[in-house]
Design goal:
By secondary structure, the protein is mainly beta. Helices cover 9% and strands 27% of the residues.
């Protein structure tokens, strides 16, 4: 593929650039690396890397040039991600330009500048070696260029400038190139809280300890709901900022990141302090635990080769370390240190990181109260970890915690042993057929016990269901009598509730059935009847008349009406609404009380009459009539002026 301007001047410029690139004074044969005075931040590895122009993202200088030679492992090709190409525009990019070339195949890509930018952010080449040439002349503006690369094994390569806001899906997996740590870009948050989604993604991954900046690597993260405040932290050589609320936050997936338990602490020495009051304060090794309140471990003054040793009790996979100073009260802390490990506590091996060439020096604390994290990539597999301070502030004082997990057990593959076919015996009898249950595999030897357990469970469930049904039916039969047709008319005596309303249990005591009170003692005839029975009210029309109950059923034309509700007399026994005289009472019904006056002859005053019992008139006798008070009167006599009438109404 050949890209360039269409005019003759553009073709000439391309030819000159190719000549400078391939046959220029900087070398005839690309051997890898960078050359020139226009090179900026550069980190080149066999699998990935990052390069930029000088002063990026500031204005690149005039009359500069830089050449980068990129080479991938054999049988692979290179992928290039354009992070930023901001070169001053000119015709055919003659003043400032970026040109990519394959020396082996003679293929070029470009030139590129502000008015001729790459069409895609990712360029796929078919070569394992590419030369990048940056050239500048006199210009006024332009940030320069930022370019990343990786092998064809990582098609999800991204630039160092990609942020979390560039994605919309909840789960993201990308490949970050090496060298993004020192590229300009802000991050907000820390490994425990997560990071603001506006943070630069690959730089935040280095801060979280997911990848090493000198290697790069695959990053898996989740975009979750944002939080109100993101705290700043210093980790893996990067400072994060304190950030405010965001819609989403970035949570990096780290499988082995638990705080490990320390079985014992050991140190080269410890400090016994005597304060101004003469009190002793021991800065022993046991106080080096990160969660310890108060002062920390401190080495004896004047010790230049102090060290702190942590015994994990068993072999562990250690992926990181967290350090802290003495405390807020004492301004002692370690600014840099080395780490070594041992499996037996005798033979120690220094940690050299991913390069493997020299001992790695970790950045420590900048104050006595903050926590600083550093990741071990690759991790350390050991039981004993030793921390050796290299520089410190005022005094060697330290609190430490290790992060990791138990080592994964990898079983060695068993050697292949060819199986010898065995002779299968021919059964003499036909085995009993079993109906297979879909999804259930039963052992023939345990089938009997399994079936018994299933039958017992089924019988228990059936028994419980029967008991619940029986209890429900018994409860329905025990409904109170008030819900049946055994209601009581208002104003009548109240009967006790019975569970079952039957014909045999209906007849109450005689005092409850009688519509009139029992006979009172002579001389107490004016006493009112029992209050348990609501008699109809007796209304007297004249002052001389007196009230008195009656045992006779009144006529319907006298104003009596039946109650609206059923009374206790309206039952299957067909009892009388008014009770008959009880035997062995006299044949004649004697009222309990009579009015003082009787009906007289018209014009005569009402005078009290003597009460007496008289026989009931015979059917054929019409000579006399009985008055309302039981006094005979001549036939045809007229009623007097003091009539007595009963007015019946509904019970109250």
């Amino acid at each position: 593929m050949r890209a360039g301007g269409g005019a003759a001047r553009g073709a000439l410029a391309v030819a000159l650039l190719r000549r400078c690139l391939l046959l220029g004074p900087l070398g005839m044969r690309p051997a890898g690396g960078q050359e020139g005075d226009g090179c900026g931040h550069t980190l080149l590895t066999p699998h990935s890397g990052t390069l930029s122009s000088k002063n990026y993202p500031g204005t690149y200088p005039n009359h500069t040039a830089c050449r980068w030679r990129l080479r991938a492992p054999p049988d692979t090709s290179l992928l290039l991600a354009f992070g930023d190409v901001d070169l001053e525009p000119s015709e055919s990019c003659a003043h400032s330009s970026l040109l990519l070339a394959d020396p082996q195949a003679g293929t070029t890509y470009g030139p590129f500048c502000r008015n001729a930018v790459p069409t895609t952010p990712l360029l796929v080449t078919n070569s394992s070696a590419v030369t990048v040439l940056f050239n500048s002349t006199s210009h006024r503006s332009g940030r320069g260029l930022l370019l990343s690369y990786a092998t064809s094994q990582h098609p999800d390569l991204v630039s160092c400038l990609v942020r979390g806001t560039h994605y919309t899906q909840e789960h993201v997996s990308v490949y970050c190139p090496a060298g993004c740590k020192d590229i300009d870009g802000d991050i907000w948050g820390n490994p425990s809280q997560g990071y603001r989604d506006t943070s630069v993604l690959c730089k935040a991954a280095v801060h979280a300890g997911v990848i090493a900046d000198e290697l790069g690597g695959q990053v898996t993260l989740a975009r979750e709901k944002g939080i109100t405040l993101y705290e700043s932290a210093f980790a893996n050589g990067l400072h994060s900022k304190r950030g405010s609320l965001s819609e989403k936050r970035l949570i990096f997936h780290k499988a082995c990141g638990d705080v490990l338990e320390v079985a014992a602490f050991n140190a080269s020495s410890w400090w016994l302090e005597v304060d101004a009051l003469g009190q002793d304060r021991a800065w022993v090794a046991e106080r080096a635990a990160l969660g310890t309140a108060g002062h920390s471990w401190a080495a004896e003054p004047g010790s230049d080769s102090a060290w702190l040793e942590l015994d994990l009790g068993a072999r562990r996979n250690v992926t990181g370390i967290i350090t802290k100073g003495s405390s807020e009260q004492y301004d002692y802390y370690v600014t840099s240190y080395r780490v070594s490990s041992s499996r037996d506590g005798k033979n120690w091996r220094p940690y050299r990181g991913s390069s493997g060439q020299e001992d790695k020096v970790f950045e420590g604390n900048a104050d006595s109260y903050g926590e600083v994290s550093n990741a071990f990539i690759p991790p350390i597999v050991a039981r004993y970890i030793r921390v050796t301070p290299q520089s410190w502030h005022q005094r060697v004082a330290l609190k430490v915690a290790l992060v990791g997990c138990q080592p994964a057990r990898v079983r060695a593959p068993r050697p292949y042993v060819p199986s010898v076919p065995k002779e299968v015996p021919v059964p003499t009898s036909r085995p009993a057929s079993h109906t297979p249950i879909p999804g259930v595999a039963l052992d023939p030897e345990k089938a009997g016990s399994t079936l018994l357990v299933m039958l017992l469970i089924g019988g228990f469930v059936l028994l419980c269901s029967s008991l619940l049904l029986l209890a429900f039916l018994c409860r329905r039969k025990r409904k109170p009598a008030a819900e049946l047709s055994c209601g009581i008319t208002k104003g009548y005596p109240k009967l006790e509730s019975s569970p079952v309303c039957s014909l045999q249990s209906l007849p109450p005591p005689g005092s409850a059935l009688a519509s009139f009170p029992t006979a009172a003692v002579p001389g107490d005839l004016s006493q009112t009847h029992s209050p348990e029975y609501a008699e109809p009210d007796l209304v007297q029309l004249t002052p001389s008349s007196q009230t008195g109950p009656s045992t006779f059923k009144p006529l319907l034309d006298e104003g009596y009406t039946l109650p609206l509700v059923m009374s206790h007399y309206d039952v299957p026994g067909k009892y009388h609404e008014y009770a008959e005289p009880l035997p062995p009472e006299p044949e004649y019904a004697t009222p309990f009380s009579e009015p003082d006056g009787t009906r007289g002859i018209t014009g005569l005053p009402c005078t009290p009459l003597v009460r007496y019992d008289a026989p009931t008139p015979r059917p054929g006798d019409r000579g006399t009539e009985r008055t309302a008070g039981g006094i005979p009167s001549p036939e045809g006599a007229q009623l007097g002026d003091c009539p007595l009438s009963h007015v019946y109404h509904e019970a109250l």
